[in-house]
Amino acid sequence: MGHYGFTSRTSAATVLSAAAGLTAAVLLMASCSASPPHPAHKHGASPAPHAAATPAPGTSRPPTGTSTGQLGATLAVSDSSGTQLDITLTKIIDPAGGANSYSNPAKGSHFVGVKLRIHNTATTTYQNNANNETTITLTDGKTLHANYNPIADCGNFDNGQITLKSGATSTGCVTFQVPKGQKVTRVGYGNTVFPGKNADWQIS
């Protein structure tokens, strides 16, 4: 009986000791989990104060604006692709006749030809389509784009295509269909892809 009683007291002491150790471990874990987050985490979520104000390196503004003049004036045209032109609006053919029996304006409209002399002043070759780059403005304020029909006595460059080596010049006409009763008040020329300096002629 004494042997079993001694064993019971020893076991009870062992259990109490283990329970005390477990309680201490639980308290230690609770203390660790309750600690506040590191302040650096909060600051890390905010953007750097000077990041937005830093400009992108190597950027530059393309040439912009508009060269203006009257019929017969030579105006400068340039853009961010390296284009440099001197363009002269030499004539407005209004009305213009079709180049052949297949070239006819729509009912209620007539052809107008815009004759341009284009000189490449850049050191590189200029390639573009004058039909895409030329516009006209009418007395009602509407802007029209090229019609592509050939007109008599003035060719459309190479179907609108222009290829000019440095220093070369080419002359041609861009055709428009204008409603009856309307007149051309302005002619414009400028690159439709790259931003730059355009030309604008006012027609009196």
Task: Describe the overall structure.
This protein is of the alpha+beta class. It has 2 domains: about 1-35; about 65-200, Immunoglobulin-like, CATH 2.60.40.1240. The chain is built from 3 helices and 11 strands. It has helices at about 1-35, 40-45, 130-135, and strands spanning about 65-70, 75-80, 85-95, 110-120, 125-130, 135-140, 145, 160-165, 170-180, 185-190, 195-200. Strands 1, 2, 3, 4, 6, 7, 9, 10 and 11 form a 9-stranded mixed β-sheet that branches. A two-stranded antiparallel ribbon has the order 5-8. A hairpin with a 4-residue loop joins strand 6 (about 135-140) and strand 7 (about 145). The longest helix is centred in the first third of the chain and has 32 residues, at about 1-35. The chain is globular and about 45 Å long. The termini are far apart. The relative contact order is 0.19. Mean pLDDT is about 80; it is low at about 1-60.
Detail the topology: elements first, then pairings.
Layout: H1 2-33, H2 39-44, E1 65-70, E2 74-79, E3 84-96, E4 109-120, E5 126-129, H3 130-133, E6 134-138, E7 143-145, E8 161-164, E9 169-179, E10 184-189, E11 196-202
Parallel strand pairs: 1-11
Antiparallel strand pairs: 2-3, 2-11, 3-4, 4-9, 5-8, 6-7, 6-10, 10-11
